[in-house]
Each structure stands twice: as C-alpha cells, then as structure tokens.
UniProtKB/TrEMBL annotation:
This is GntR family transcriptional regulator. The keyword Acetylation does not apply. It comes from the Bacteria. PROSITE patterns: HTH_GNTR. SUPFAM superfamilies: GntR ligand-binding domain-like (SSF48008), Winged helix' DNA-binding domain (SSF46785). It comes from Microbacterium caowuchunii. One of its GO terms (molecular function) is DNA binding.
Amino acid sequence: MTAARQPEHGEATAHIAGLLREAIVRGDFTPGARVRQEQIAELTGASRAPVREALRMLAAEGLVTLVANSGARVSSLSLPECQEIYRVRERVEPLLLRMSAPGLDESELDHLGALAEEMAETADPEEFLALDRAFHLATYAAAETVVLSDLVHRLWNRTQAYRRIYTALMDERARQTVHDEHRLIVAAIRDGDLDSAESLLAGHIRRTRRQLASHPEVFATHPTTSNASAARRPA
C-alpha cells in the first residue's frame, strides 16, 4: 500500500478504506495477515481514528475480520464459503451482464475483445488476474443498478486472493478454455444473443467454482504476511 497525502478530515476514512481495499485486492495482504492500525496511520499520515473507521468499513464488506483484543486481519474463506459466493455469482452476474450488454457500444466491445486477446497472450499470472478483472467488470459497466453492481464488486473482492492462488495452478488446457469462453462471451454480446451470453458466463463461473473445489489446498491456512511486506510499497 502506498503512502499518500492525508485528505481533508471528512474524507480521510473513505480514502484510507480505498487504499486498504486496493492493497488487499492487489495481494499486498494475504488471507489471515494482520493489519496494524499504527502502521497504516503512519503510512497515510492519518490519526488512528479514521484508520479504525476504515477497518470497520472493510469489515462490513467482508474483507477484514475484527477480533476483540487482537485487532484486524484480512478475512479468509473456507472452501464451503467460497463455493457459496461462487454460486451467488453464477446467479447474479449473468443478470448484471444482461442488464449491461445493450448499453455497450462498438468501441467498448472492441476493448473487451482486446482484453480477451491480451489475456490469451500473457504468461504472467498477475497480469492475467488484472486483465480478467478488467474484462468482466467492463462487461457490467453499462448496467444501471441500485445494488447489484456494488454486490458483484464485493463478491469479486472477497474471492480475489483465491483466484490469485488458483491462477498459478491452472494448466494449459484450463487456460485455453478460459480464453475461449472470454471470446465467446464477447461474440454473443456483439450478436445481441443475450441468452447465450448469460449461459456462457454462468458456465464460466461454474467451471471456476468446480476447479477451485478440486484444489482444497488453496483453502488451507495461509502463512500470514509480515507487517513489513504487507504494507510494502510497489516498485
């Protein structure tokens, strides 16, 4: 997590929560890692009060767990918990895609196609993760919703650490299937075939859920990141 100038007092809590959220999603903190209030306050130039409030916000999102007399740790998921989240995603993300697809213009569809090809070309798991996230969230970007977009973003954030671990385990066949599905989703949206787009996306998410279930070691207790590395500054 990078240090930043402290914003005005009324914005400090949201600012710190945003920095921490990004750091957790980026993998700077592993599941189970302790988040030290004093270290975050030092890095951001804030007092501990907005740091505490920011951690409460992230706890409400499920990203951190607050333990009495122990402080905050990045939340971990068990296999059943992760499976439940993926089952919810199988239902709600196809709906969000259907709501969004009619609003995607040609330039946005071209961008989605480019992202799909970039994913197929990269051998870097971190780059793939970033591109995959950008791809799927871009397919939902045109939807006008009250709660669904926010819900989907939170579900993605909750499972990001486990996608990161699993991505490193994918074999060539699994990677090729993922790339083919991305291309087919874009093609279905271009054709206005929203039934196929929904079905493809549901199957895409379901396949990941089943593959994660075949790697229960992903959900074993993770060694916690040291405070120095958890709050590291990217190069």
